[in-house]
Design brief:
- It is a single chain.
- The protein is of the alpha+beta class.
- The protein has eleven helices and twelve strands.
- Strands 1, 2, 3, 4, 5, 6, 7 and 8 form an eight-stranded antiparallel beta sheet that branches. It has a four-stranded antiparallel beta sheet with strand order 9-10-11-12.
- Strand 11 and strand 12 form a beta hairpin.
- Helix 3 crosses helix 6 and helix 3 crosses helix 7.
- 20% of the residues are buried.
- About 16% of the residues have low confidence.
């Protein structure tokens, strides 16, 4: 601390200025405030970047949750563990995407038919789609087809349909409203040679690119892209931000209940109150179970379990007098030699001379079906160069009645 004394003139000047800072200090403070404001202020949307940082973060969260469900669905379809990492959201154009990834891609176009306006595109590298097709057709994924034909495209399209169905279910939960999609449109496009990728957006129109990294149990480790038009992305963000607006309001108490509660007598002793609370608990649980599903639970209505008469297995008594009315009704009689199950891959490999092994032993009785229902068993015979069947056993009426129940 300085030993110099402060003069009266200096004290008066300080009091007159009200403790204001010196011009140099004021200038420094204004510069710091301006710099901090520039750092904190978010980037304003522009024509090239029409989404704010908050909207991009929301899209990343939507993609993270929805693709998690898609990965689970794809794991079940392929029989291998599928993991999809946290997405990266950025703005781009279709021309820029084609220039950055000059290679063949499988394009899956999906349109939203309810809940969201617009379409979106899922892009998967062609070699990864070949692995998915091989797994969908019963292979192990180590020898995928070099070129995707119509059958392979159909198999991958079914996998993508199931994936996007899981995505729409997740979106329905997040947005608290029903989301439906149209069947996917699958096409193979080489980004390096094709000029147009999709009809949804033009080449220079800004789009939202959501990039994911997908890994399939050591068979696939690459990037997949979800491409969204800006209006569709904006609609999804708005649906997420206003998801609570779609919730049904809690039912208000009826006007007649207010006077009743106002004129209610004094509380009863503890034991009757406990009994009343116990009686009201099932009704409260029923109300909680019905709320959120659109159900309305009536209060104070007695409920009891439904009683059904057991289905008797005794044969039905037929009125012989009227049986003649249906004697000329044609029925389809089928003799089944046996059955088996084959994968799509095995079916496609069948050719002239292939042998299909059935589930019955040689010489075992064949099944005789009438309109698809098992009626009897028999053995195959030859009658004048035609095949026939000799009935050896008739299914009992009790067994036939039991089969008709399922």
């Amino acid at each position: 601390m300085s030993d110099e004394m402060v003069s009266q003139e200096e004290i008066d000047a300080l009091l007159k200025d009200g403790g204001a800072a010196s011009p140099a200090e004021a200038g420094t403070g204004e510069a710091e405030a301006s710099a901090s404001a520039e750092v904190a202020a978010p980037a304003a949307p522009t024509a090239e970047n029409p989404l704010s940082d908050m909207q991009k973060d929301a899209l990343g969260e939507i993609g993270n949750i929805s693709m998690g469900s898609a990965a689970t669905t794809l794991s079940v379809l392929l029989g291998h563990k599928v993991s999809i990492t946290t997405p990266s959201v950025s703005m781009s154009t279709m021309n820029s995407i084609r220039a950055s990834y000059p290679m063949p891609y499988l394009i899956v176009e999906v349109g939203y038919t309810m809940g969201i306006n617009g379409n979106n595109v899922l892009a998967i590298q062609a070699q990864d789609a070949s692995v998915i097709a091989d797994l969908m057709m019963g292979g192990d994924g180590t020898n995928p087809p070099e070129e995707l034909n119509d059958i392979h495209m159909s198999a991958v399209g079914e996998a993508m349909n199931q994936m996007m169905g899981a995505v729409s279910t997740s979106l329905s939960t997040m947005f608290n409203k029903k989301i439906d999609i149209s069947p996917p449109k699958v096409s193979l496009i080489d980004f390096g040679t094709e000029d147009k990728v999709t009809e949804i957006v033009s080449g220079d129109e800004p789009v939202v690119k959501v990039s994911f990294r997908m890994e399939v149990d050591g068979l696939i480790d690459s990037e997949i892209m979800q491409i969204l038009p800006v209006p569709t992305a904006t609609d999804m963000v708005e649906s997420l931000l206003h998801s609570n607006d779609n919730e049904e309001p809690e039912p208000e108490a009826s006007p007649a209940a207010a006077p009743a509660s106002a004129s209610a007598p004094a509380p009863a002793p503890a034991a009757p109150a406990a009994a009343a609370a116990t009686a009201a608990a099932p009704m409260m649980a029923a109300s909680a179970a019905g709320y959120g599903t659109g159900a309305r639970v009536a209060q104070g209505v007695p409920v009891q379990a439904a009683q059904f008469t057991p289905l008797a297995t005794a044969p039905v008594q037929v009125n012989e007098a009227n049986i003649g009315l249906i004697l000329d009704v044609p029925l389809q009689v089928t003799v089944e030699l046996g059955r088996t199950k084959k994968s799509i891959k095995d079916i496609l490999e069948l050719s002239n001379g292939s042998i299909v092994e059935l589930d019955k032993l040689a010489g075992e009785p064949v099944d005789i079906h009438v309109n698809g229902k098992l009626l009897a068993k028999g053995e195959v015979v030859v009658i004048d160069e035609n095949f026939g069947v000799r009935i050896t056993d008739i299914v009992s009426p009790e067994e036939r009645a039991a089969r008709l129940q399922y």
